[in-house]
Amino acid sequence: MATSLPPDASSRLADTAARAPADSFRRTLSALLSLSKPRLTVLVVLSAMVPYALYPVPAFLSSGAAEHIPSLSPLTLLFLTTGTTLCSAAANALNMLYEPDTDAKMTRTRARPLVRRLLTTRAAVLFALGCAAAGTAALYLGVNPTVAFLGAANIALYAGAYTPLKRVSAVNTWVGAVVGGIPPLMGWAAAAGESATGDGTWRELLFASDGSSLGGWLFAGLLFAWQFPHFMPLSWGIRDEYRAAGLRMLCWVNPARNARVALRYSLVFVPLCVGLCAAGVTEWSFSVTSLPVNLWLVREAVKFWRYEGHKGSARSLFWASVWHLPVTMVLALAQKKGMWARVWKSVAGEPEEDDFDEDDAEWVDIPGSGSRVVEPAGTSKR
Asked: Where is the chain membrane-spanning (predicted)?
């Protein structure tokens, strides 16, 4: 299976750098971009953007007084994507800095810039630290401290825990899956921070007492679970190289368990998608439209388990996982809770239902926040 995969973006950028004149700007820029693992970084950013876009903003779901509540901010989204991109680039660069000797032993990674000495170690360190500092600052100043903490924590977890664990235990894959599940929480917390009515701390954004943070955790669970039916067949195709490089991956440590894990986690997507409907993130139709792609992934995972990767089952599951995630995300975006009802009312010109009467309203203080909201008279609790 390894030979059927197209070269990744890092390898292509490293090739571009190698062809450029020594000490040229093009060579340096291509090599630095290669350090960031562009395709992986794009996936990380998209996994943060989708929960941000799907957050159930009150202004979108209701009418009348709620229309005066600000919607999601394009500026916040810009800071979220920029900060997440830089944090991901930093984590990937630190990962490459840690294991150039290991990368040199594997066909999948031997084209990386540090292996080919297209960059000095000093330049790579400065790039990684600069991206980490700039990314965390962008998230802190442009989004909120909770998202900035999650971004910094993900860098530390990926570079400081997952990467060294690869030489120690197969549990590294579960740690890597946690890394994959954090960006959706970042996107959700970014949107929640714009609608926060309390102190806006991590407790309110990630563990809201009214259950509004459930959607973020469901997305985190979806990205966590996806890592296994995606990585297990990918690693199985190069299991001998992992063994030779001294990286303890389940694909060669315990091939039978490797297949069982992929199957086990492929089964959770159906309840996760139903959970997004129950949490009010998507319409209930999403549980139906996402079912075919979820069952397709399960079918390929069953084959992978039955044949333990042989008879083309690893390749089939890998490509099913590649398509599964974007299709699921697009379906969720297309069925955001209340979106089409709102569009229909706008197109059909139907009047908004509005029981709010400004002449019969009163200001109510939010305890401890220094803020005030308008409520219909008689509804506030003194």
From this structure: 40-57, 77-98, 119-141, 147-165, 172-193, 265-286, 316-334
